Amino acid sequence: MSRALRAALTRLLEADDGRLSASQFTHAQQRALDDCRARTGALGLQRSGRGSVYYLTDRAVIERHLRRWRRWTMAVQPLLCPGEPPI
Question: So where are the chain's domains?
Fold first, then answer.
């Protein structure tokens, strides 16, 4: 999982209603969200006025996705970067 995707998903999860304007994300985050949306179906993109809004369609899938990434990071990071604090 890219840093861009991880940051964007975390922001969506922290949003009050699970919705954020696309303009609040970097282009890299938007590309990552679009890819995740196509692969998982757990995100949506809706036109709103002159812009777009990303929203969660399945919060549980996104939470599970981030949990798996964190577990993997905790297992692999000590092998790749001994002595470094966890991400």
Answer: 3-66
Taking the C-alpha atoms of residue 57 and residue 52, their distance in angstroms, rounded to an integer, is 15
Q: DSSP letter at 53? A: E
**pLDDT per residue rounded down to tens, the chain (87 residues):** 678 999 999 999 999 899 999 999 999 999 999 999 999 999 999 998 999 999 999 999 999 988 887 765 655 555 555 566 555
DSSP 8-class letter at 24? G
CB 59 within 8 A of CB 38: no
Q: Which of the listed CATH numbers 1.10.10, 1.20.1510, 3.40.50, 3.30.2010 matches domain 3-66?
A: 1.10.10
- Looking at residue 46, its pLDDT comes to 95
